[in-house]
Amino acid sequence: MTLKLVVLGDSIAWGQGAAREQDRLAPRLVAALEARDLTVVPRVVAVPGARSRSLSAQVDAAVPWGADVAVIVIGANDLTHLEPVGPAVQALSDAVRRLRASGTEVVVAPAPDLSAVPHVPPFLRDVVRAAGDELRTRQVAAVLAAGGRIGDPDHRASGAFARDPTLFSADRFHPSSAGYAVIADSVLPAVLSATLAAASRR
Q: N or C: which end of the chain has fewer CB atoms below 10 A?
C-alpha cells in the first residue's frame, strides 16, 4: 500500500530543533510506517510559528493533494501568544472537518504542557499548566466531534519532557532529536489506526 501522509501545524510539526532532517517528526513517522511494509509519500505544510488560525491556509494546501492521513500538531503558539481558547479550538475543528470531508483520516497532537519548558519560572508553572489543560481538553473534544483521532491521548510525551530536559533542543523550547523520537512514538498508534481506516476504504 502507498500512503500519502501530510503534516500540518506549527514548528513541532515542521521539526524545528532537530539536529538532522531525518530526526524531524514527519521523517520519523515515515520510517515507522515503512518498517511496517508501507510505502509512504510525505508532505509537510506545517509552518514554524503557526497558531490554530493558521490551519485554514495549510488545509488549503493539503486538500488538493489528496492525503490519506493528516497529522496536525498545534496549540503551543496559541498558548504562548495568549490566543483566546474558543476561536483557536474552532479553527482546529474547522480544519479537521475539512480534511475529513475530503476523505483524509486525521490525527491531532493537541497542545503540549508548556509548564515542562525549562525556562518557565517555577512560580508560573501551575498557571501555565492550567492554561494548557484547558486548551487541550477543549481541543480533544472538538477533534473527536469532528471525526478525528487524538495522538498521545495519555499525554505520555509531555510527561517524558517534564522528566528529561535532554528532550529539549538548545533553545530550551523546541524538541531535540531525542524529543522528536518521543513525540513520534506517542502519536504513532493513532497514525497506524488512521492508516488502517484509510486502507479499508480502498
A: C
